[in-house]
Write a structure and sequence with these properties.
By secondary structure, the protein is an alpha/beta fold. The chain contains ten helices and 15 strands. 44% of the residues are buried.
Length: 339
């Protein structure tokens, strides 16, 4: 049986191709894909041929193609393996570690049932959102503490909304792009600042009473980390969520970390337990379930974040814009229902 899939066949080239359906293992489920969400930063790095696409690759490595992305998706279970438990045909699911593909065959551990009232569009954002939620958990955020999110791409925007739902106050969004700051204010930020504006650090310290308690650093740049460190309260915590694809970091460790007692923790999504969630460290499925509950209760409104939805057959044009358009929207999805 044939399916269709978006594949980066060479640098700066996305194609919708016909592919063979994946075989179904005993613990696998076959899912008709409804929506997939573009992870803008990761997918831009992959399609442009950046060799540093994981912690295991280096700038000197050769970029290897084809590449296949689309790890956050939603769909309907159509078949299940002999040893699958907990899923039935017809279940609506949010999925992790998928691809932009019309039909995804995944291990049962890579799916969670959707809550009633949650749309397929929202569910297709849940895996990406689990990255942001894990970063917030690692700061050990307490209700009433201040949070600053450096960078307002999709991970940053979702982190803003989750920080508000978690009881942070104030929630501060930081990004040099005015449109992204406006979006952050719409979806949970109390303040939104340009990091290059005059007296940026002083403004953050003024509204937080001396410094921010927790920072989610999503830019992946050394300058972003340095700016965050300048804004910290004593004993503040920073989680490094954004992928740091270069090593261009210069930090005054003594004055900015050591003396004020700052904690910095790596928040890559793979740095979490595979089983048995515990405070600060949840499994991916448990974080996904938590987000689905927040969406179902109305405490998160992610559907309104979606700026554009496209047919997969337009992928070449969509990714050309992602590569070249500095104003490419934060949340963009592919609609697979008709395929």
């Amino acid at each position: 049986m044939k399916d269709t899939q978006i594949i980066f066949t060479k640098p700066n080239c996305a194609e919708l191709l016909e592919v063979e359906r994946q075989p179904l293992g005993a613990q696998d489920i076959g899912v008709k894909t409804m929506f997939t969400t573009i992870s803008t930063g990761t997918e831009r790095a992959n399609i442009t041929g950046d060799p540093v696409i994981s912690a295991h690759t280096r700038p000197t490595d050769k970029a290897v193609f084809p590449r296949m992305l689309g790890y956050s998706a939603s769909g309907i279970v159509m078949e299940k393996g002999a040893d699958v438990t907990g899923f039935e045909i017809g279940d609506r699911v949010a999925m992790c570690w998928t691809t932009h593909r019309s039909y995804n065959v995944i291990h049962q551990s890579c799916a969670v049932k959707m809550e009633d009232g949650v749309s397929f569009e929202e569910a297709a954002m849940v895996h990406i959102g689990a990255f942001s939620l894990a970063a917030i958990r690692k700061t050990r955020l307490e209700v009433g503490e201040s949070v600053m999110v450096m960078g307002q791409g999709i991970l940053g925007l979702l982190a803003v909304s989750l920080a508000r739902a978690a009881g942070a106050v104030p929630v501060i969004a930081v990004d040099p792009v005015a449109q992204k700051r406006e979006g952050a204010l719409q979806f949970g930020a109390d303040y939104a600042f340009d990091p290059f504006e005059e007296e940026f650090v002083q403004k953050v310290k003024a509204i937080t009473g001396g410094g921010v308690n927790a920072v989610i650093e999503v830019t992946g740049h050394g300058s972003g980390l340095n700016m965050a460190l300048d804004c910290m309260a004593r004993h503040g915590r920073i989680s490094l969520l954004g992928c740091t694809r270069n090593s261009d970091f210069t930090v005054d460790y003594y004055r900015k970390i050591h003396e004020p007692g700052i904690t910095i923790v790596g928040a890559h999504t793979t740095a979490r337990p595979e089983h048995d969630s515990y405070p600060g460290y949840f499994t991916t499925p448990d974080d996904m379930k938590a987000i689905l509950k927040l969406c179902a209760s109305g405490r998160l409104n992610w559907k309104d974040m979606i700026a554009e939805t496209h047919a997969p057959k337009t992928c070449a044009q969509v990714y050309d814009r992602l590569i070249h358009d500095k104003d490419f929207p934060v949340v963009v999805q592919f609609d697979w229902k008709g395929l």
